[in-house]
Design goal:
This protein is mainly alpha-helical.
């Protein structure tokens, strides 16, 4: 579970960096990377939910 949380933190950092680049600099490629990171985060959060529920049992 710790590995998954570390992966989520890293993906959040990637998303934040690229979303800021799109917003502040108008970097369209960074927007694409931010959207990809958002999709990856969504998948990771679903996995976290499964792991978290199993760990609490």
């Amino acid at each position: 579970m710790k590995e998954l949380i570390d992966s989520i933190k890293a993906e959040i950092d990637i998303f934040t960096k690229n979303a800021d680049a799109q917003l502040n600099k108008g970097n369209k490629a960074a927007g694409t990377r931010a959207r990809k990171a958002a999709l990856n985060l969504s998948k990771m959060m679903k996995e976290f939910r499964k792991v978290s529920v199993d760990a609490s049992k």
